[in-house]
Amino acid sequence: MRFGIISFPGSNCEQDCIYIIEEVLNQKALLLDYRTIPELNNLIDCLIIPGGFSYGDYLRAGAIAKAAPIMKSIREFAENKGLILGICNGFQILTEAGLLPGTLLSNKAARFICQDVKLKVINNKTPFTNLYFEQEIITMPIAHAMGNFTVSESELEILKANQQIVLEYENDINGSTSQIAAICNKDKNILGLMPHPERCSEKVLPSGNQGLQLFQSILKSFVNV
């Protein structure tokens, strides 16, 4: 399977993602430059927008990255039902670009949070979570200052009705509506999450390896297409 990982100015997790794809999953990883407009449908099977601080998080996290040249390719890839995974800053970029609903605001404590958190799997019927059990409690690390996922009450009802809520924090970590940690689009081919699965995909790590199942779920989905 071919994965594409985008590098924006300020991205700092792209090499972590490449390591997991190539060394742990033994799949192909292609580093993509934000200044290009590649034909992604002919290059990759899954796109990863990694964490970090694209453009220094100036204006608002993800607000500048959404205007990068490569976003044209990303929109076309999304329209063709390509798999897209946005991690942390990648999640922020996807919401800013309108590819996922909601907004990521500053944490309610107005400070950067970096810790392991407990998550509940709400929807395991997506290409990204099919190897988890519904209601399973898993552990992943977070590292963000703007992880407060916010939607209106009417938007929340739509998310629930369409089964777009994928992960929830077990506790109120950052003020997110309904303690939401991850959502997908209606077609389930785009996932945005604030936790970092690439930082917990090997048993040797303090956070364990429960993030690996997310990447393995993508592989399973691709094989079963």
What's the short story on this structure?
The chain contains six helices and eleven strands. It is α/β, with parallel strands linked by helices and 225 residues long.
Describe the model.
- Helix content is 24%, strand content 26%.
- By secondary structure, it is an alpha/beta fold.
- Strands 2-1-3-4-11-10-9-6-7 form a nine-stranded mixed β-sheet, sandwiched between helices. A two-stranded antiparallel ribbon has the order 5-8.
- It is globular, with a radius of gyration of 16 Å.
- The two termini are 12 Å apart.
- The mean pLDDT is 96.
What does the secondary structure layout of this molecule look like, with pairings?
Layout: E1 2-7, H1 14-24, E2 28-33, H2 40-43, E3 46-49, H3 70-79, E4 83-87, H4 89-96, E5 103-105, E6 113-121, E7 137-144, E8 148-150, H5 153-161, E9 165-169, E10 180-184, E11 190-193, H6 212-224
Parallel strand pairs: 1-2, 1-3, 3-4, 4-11
Antiparallel strand pairs: 5-8, 6-7, 6-9, 9-10, 10-11
For the record, the CATH architecture stands as 3-Layer(aba) Sandwich
| Strand elements, count | 11
Which sheet architecture does the biggest sheet show?
A: 9 strands, mixed
The fold-level CATH name is Rossmann fold
Cα Rg: 16 Å
State the oligomer: single chain
